[in-house]
Amino acid sequence: MxxxxxLSFFAFLICIYMGLYVIRLNSKTLIxxxxxxLSISMAIxxxxxxxxxxxxxxxxVLFWYKITAFGWANFPAFILHFxxxxxxxxxxxxxxxxxxxxxxxxxxxxRAMTGGFLAIDFEPGPGNALYEIQNTQSIWYNLYVVYLWIxxxxxxxxxxxxxxxTPVKKIKSQSRIFLIAVVILFIVISTTNLIFPLxxxxxxxxxxxxxxxxxxxxxxxxIVKYNLMAFTVESAAQExxxxxxxxxxxxxxxGKVILVNNFTERSLALKSEDLIxxxxxxxxxxxxxxxDLLRKMDKTDHLADETLHMKKAxxxxxxxxxSFSGIKDKVGDLLGTLVVGHDINMTIKLKEELEFRRKxxxxxxxxxxxxxxxxxxxxxxxxxxxxxxKQLSQSEKMASLGELTAGIAHEIQNPLNFVxxxxxxxxxxLKEMKSLLEKGDIAEASAIADDLEQNLEKxxxxxxxxxxxxxxxxxxxxxxxxxxQLTDINVLCDEFFRLAYHGLRAKDKSFNATLLTxxxxxxxxxxxxxxxxxxxxxxxxxxxxxxxAERKKLNQSGYEPTVTVSTKRISLTGGGSSAGGxxxxxxxxxxxxxxxxxxxLDKIFQPFFTTKPAGEGTGLGLSLAYDIVIKGHGGEIKxxxxxxxxxEFFVILPVK
Length: 656
Prior knowledge:
With 656 residues, this protein is α+β, with helices and mostly antiparallel strands.
């Protein structure tokens, strides 16, 4: 006797047991019935081989080999059908599909029973067993090999695709077991039953049926661990409860916990062993309230949404909304209570967040209202500042006009004195001419008439001079018209230079300075706002007089106060003054006064910044000059100064 015979018998018993075990679990399930058919076909295969492995009469061997065809000819169809059902291919449940699926196996079975086509003879070999001699040249042999490969690999590929797509962990775990087992099974069976006989290798005989015992053990493991093919209503309900994302407790009539689900264990960070047989009231912080609720379950079926706190493993509390449902028999007696808890921790956080957002929105609304109010206040303040700036600008202009008053009087007084003197002389000459005419001295009277004509021309000239001074001051005193007009820059600078000097002299008789001018006769007329540029020149000249006066007070030996006003035409395009491009008119006011300290040189154009003593300056002169030149005329204003040596301001006005 060889070892393969008892192994084949043992595989036969395992196949019969597994088929009966599965069908007893649920005989109504199609997949269980298909598995039973698979088990029977493999059992027949192994049972028949028990009589082939021993060296018996060849006629008996050939008889039992024909019986094995019920196994090896049909098991590929059973395996493919089994995998199709596992992959839930519902469209393959129709009768016509069954016929097409099992027809090739039935044909191969009939062919094997009538004439045989795999093994045509047997011969003894190692291990006291018979080895198959296969008819590899037969068309039936090659058709069977193709049939075997197509059916097995089709089932594997279909089930592998299904297992990849399914989100259920249990199915994925089952899939790995089935796929690994069937691939190993197929490789071993193909090797021992087809490849070895084809190559005349006599290491082991055809033991494909025996190898199936390992696959059956794999199926057994899947059944025991994953309840494979035993999805009853009870098991489905238990699976559903286990996977529910709510805390669930089954409590008996004494208040003890008899069952919990996985979500409860995770939520409380406790194992089922820590919860089973424990009094449910001890798991809740409001222990007395829960006792009262459980007592009420005799008289009611359901209590919902009781907000309580479950105790977690670390001692913290989990806020939950508990619902109590009584489980009663047909008579109405209480058998137990199902407690379902909804974790409201997130709900509480959401409410807190919503409340926080509501308060934040209120604060934002209040802040917005405050900002709107502040904006209105700032707009009103800005408007007041603009009005104040206009008033200060006008005040600064009037202040400068006040400083010019004495100079204006001095400048007007000179032509008026000439007008008065020449008028008095002319009256005397008229009297004399009248007397000569009475005497008939025409020649002498004609000479006096010539003198009178010259006197009248001088009176007209000095009158025009006075008129020019008055017009200049009227232009200076008017509000900002913003209207530009062609103006002789040299005349403007000379006029305001002398008026400022005589004005200061009228206030301070001790003040003296050397006045120098250097006007470019080719500068031409420039399109400017007369009163604005006049105010700039006046401010710069007054500052220069103040600087030299301050240095004079230092009583430095050989110091002579000097202020120079000059004009010059320059090119702004780099082509020279005669290049025909845009050029500029530069007004320079230079003094040899005290100079400006370098630390404050960048601040002198800021509003209300002044270096003069309190009461002597508003701090607006240079700020207004800056705005007039830069903003009003698109020009530039620069300063160069050396402390203790003097200062020079440059006003550059573009001329197109």
